[in-house]
Amino acid sequence: MKLKDLLRETDVSYPADLRDLEVTGLAYNSKLVAKGYAFFCIRGYHTDGHIFALDAAFRGASVIICEEDIDVKAIPVLKVKDSRSMLSKMSANFYENKDVPFHIYGVTGTNGKTTITYMLKKIIEVSGRPCGMIGTTGYYVGSREYEALNTTPESCDLQRMFAEMRGEGISNCVMEVSSHALALGKVDDIIFDAAIFTNLTADHMDFHENTEEYYKAKKKLFYKTYGASVINLDDNHGRMLYDELKRDKRKVLSYSLKDKKADYFGVILETTEKGSVVQVTEKGAECNMIKLNTPGIFTIYNGLAALACARSAGLSIITIQRGLELLKGVPGRFELVENDKGLIVIVDYAHTPDALEKVLKTATDFKKGRLISIFGCGGNRDTKKRALMGMIAGKYSDYCIITSDNPRTEKQENITADIESGIYDTGCNYEIIENRFDAIKKAVSIYNKGDIIIIAGKGHETYQIIGEEKYHFDDREAVKSIIEDGE
């Protein structure tokens, strides 16, 4: 594609002799540059892309997009105000295909994003249409799966995957939209058919200055949506967002388990350790029941959100019912670890105070013996939530084992001390076992019939980051190894 076409609808000026410069690809990692690529110098958390400009030129880049003066004489350099923003705009131009219909549904909020995307994907597929998915557990394009390095990929990668989907005849995509992605402009040039707001509790305070800034980042998604914004009225920030969008005359749909005036109101008919049955009222009229195969009030909220979004897309209640019923579970979300000894061990991704409380409370409602919890907190991340998570674990657990999560380069004893400051005054019996495998082994060794073991924090993840190294570790594999192999 010619540079002039890549820069369409941007305010970047360039010399006339570069108008017809051919660009064969886009990259923000110099190692991925091939002949004819445009290389974007982006400032990241740990490094600055400007220092790799020479390497990109050496690898064959045809032009460098940067924010500061750099000494690269071999190829053209375009200086812009914001390289990341320019990457988004130029990626949208590079991969555009307006002749192919493409529908994107975004989900944001502190908790519930992954489960809702799985629900929506299944519903859309039951309607007879293939659907891509982008989120925490991976990026799914037809039969291909890419590792999820971030919940929401960089704009260039998003546009490339959208193009892949269109090329395979996939006209729908559901995706998690993180607050980081919204704050950094990764989705600035994407228009969403519909968007869902789940909830907002304190998280990522190492990135956002405060909860208000966190909320403002989330809110951006709903002004990039030309269809319905689907909002949880039972969340305080959700109610605030709903009112703001209404005032701005945006199309809004609400869901609730408390407010009968919500567009989608749910009444719980049955809830057990196997799931729930919910009667749904659509805009004042009973429309039908939905069956969910994962227990917990949080799953019911997720189901209502998926239903409301699918209805806004024109899908029938019958299709939605069938899709939700066929979804047997989501990796790492209240996932029961099957074993031949009959132990009840559940793995969940809960790594925020709100998520941990919901998971432990759900387990408490069904336990016949003790609730044994295992969890830790990530290193080099938001420290404020550690004591709160300790307090929550102590409140609901009969026995708690504090262990490592992803300590990264932070000392594990510092992380543990923060957690302990919250759990200590609850009176809950607890111990500290730094090695995660040994912590799980201890929980299994003290298990009695009727107990429930909850292993929180990692969920679907198959690794631990200790120091600068990433090691293979899967809570589910560890459980099976300990229970079934005696180790």
Tell me the strand percentage band.
15-25%
Q: Largest sheet at a glance?
A: 11 strands, mixed
The CATH class name of the largest domain reads Alpha Beta
Q: Let me know the CATH homologous superfamily of the largest domain.
A: Mur-like, catalytic domain
Q: Tell me the total number of β-strands.
A: 23
| Silhouette | globular
Please list the strands of the largest sheet in the order they lie side by side: 8-7-6-9-5-10-11-12-13-14-15
Number of helices: 15
pLDDT < 50 stretches: none
> How far apart are the first and last residues' alpha carbons, in Å?
57 Å
Report the mean per-residue pLDDT as an integer: 93
- Tell me the structural class: alpha/beta
Question: Topology of this protein?
Answer:
Elements: H1 3-6, E1 25-27, E2 37-40, H2 53-58, E3 63-66, E4 77-79, H3 83-95, E5 103-108, H4 113-126, E6 131-135, E7 138-141, E8 144-146, H5 155-167, E9 172-176, H6 179-184, E10 194-197, H7 211-219, E11 229-232, H8 236-247, E12 252-256, E13 264-272, E14 275-282, E15 285-292, H9 297-312, H10 317-326, E16 335-336, E17 345-348, H11 353-366, E18 371-375, H12 384-396, E19 399-402, H13 412-423, E20 429-432, H14 436-445, E21 452-456, E22 463-466, E23 469-472, H15 475-484
Parallel strand pairs: 1-2, 2-3, 3-4, 5-9, 5-10, 6-9, 10-11, 11-12, 12-13, 17-21, 18-19, 18-21, 19-20
Antiparallel strand pairs: 6-7, 7-8, 13-14, 14-15, 16-17, 22-23
Helix pairs in contact: 3-5, 4-9, 4-10, 9-10, 11-12, 12-13, 14-15
